[in-house]
Design a protein that fits this description.
- Helix 2 runs antiparallel to helix 3 and helix 4 runs antiparallel to helix 5.
- The N and C termini lie far apart (about 110 Å).
- The protein is elongated.
- It folds into two domains: about 120 residues, Serine Threonine Protein Phosphatase 5, Tetratricopeptide repeat; about 80 residues, Tetratricopeptide repeat domain (Serine Threonine Protein Phosphatase 5, Tetratricopeptide repeat, Alpha Horseshoe), CATH 1.25.40.
- The chain has about 240 residues and is an all-alpha fold.
- The protein has eleven helices and no strands.
Length: about 240
């Protein structure tokens, strides 16, 4: 009887210990989640205000709290790129892809950083990978909803956006035919109309199509692309 009571007491103590561990773990996880969300929110706010050093500090705190969220590394990569640290940005985008291989935005911003480093071949390669991961919707930076329960899934970015920027890289590589296709696609989707019309116009002029080239440049000017003026003055009078 005494043995049974001792055994029962030991079991109670064990169950109490397990309960304590579970409760502590739960509370710690909750605290980590709260810390993570708090610092991400602050970082996004600072990023919007272009206070990049403060944004970087806060996103670093969030990653310390939870390093398993792909989008946190995308945010840090964007901040690093804004600080002209594109080599560091590429490392963060690569980490985001390692965590979530379907993170379209990570491939996209990695491509942008390569382009800023004048590595257009790697940029085009990553734009292509971004297109291959496409689902639907827009990247979360463009959305007012900061609901952290769905933030992990808001890693997509519009196809028209990707193709416009790929068009820029193709244009820089002097692959005008491929660039023209991307700009026309993005224009048809009403993405950055002035920019699309400008590059379409410049490419068409270079191909000897003055009529359509100048028409696109005129539209680009109307849609706010000031660079079109120089070409209009020089080639369309």
């Amino acid at each position: 009887m005494i043995t049974a009571m001792v055994t029962e007491k030991k079991l109670i103590n064990i169950f109490s210990l397990i309960l304590t561990i579970i409760t502590t773990s739960c509370c710690n996880n909750t605290q980590h989640a709260n810390d993570f969300q708090k610092h991400v929110t602050r970082s996004l706010n600072y990023l919007q205000e272009k206070r990049y050093k403060e944004a970087l500090r806060e996103i670093n705190y969030s990653i310390i709290a939870d390093s398993t969220k792909s989008y946190a590394f995308v945010i840090r990569g964007k901040i690093e790129s804004s600080l002209d640290n594109d080599l560091f940005a590429i490392q963060d985008f690569s980490k985001a892809i390692e965590i979530n291989p379907n993170n379209t935005s990570a491939f996209f911003y990695k491509a942008v950083s390569f382009s800023l480093l004048n590595n257009e071949d790697s940029a085009i390669f990553n734009y292509n990978l971004a297109i291959n991961t496409k689902r639907s919707g827009k990247f979360y930076f463009d959305r007012p909803n900061k609901d952290f329960t769905i933030l992990d899934n808001q890693t997509d970015i519009g196809l028209a956006t990707i193709r416009y920027f790929r068009g820029l890289s193709l244009y820089n590589k002097k692959d005008d035919s491929a660039a023209l296709q991307d700009f026309r696609y993005s224009l048809n989707e009403n993405y950055n109309k002035g920019g699309c019309q400008f590059y379409i116009g410049v490419i068409l002029l270079s191909q000897g199509d003055k009529l359509d080239g100048c028409a696109n440049l005129m539209e680009a000017k109307i849609n706010g692309k000031k660079e079109a003026d120089e070409y209009i003055t020089k080639y369309c009078r």
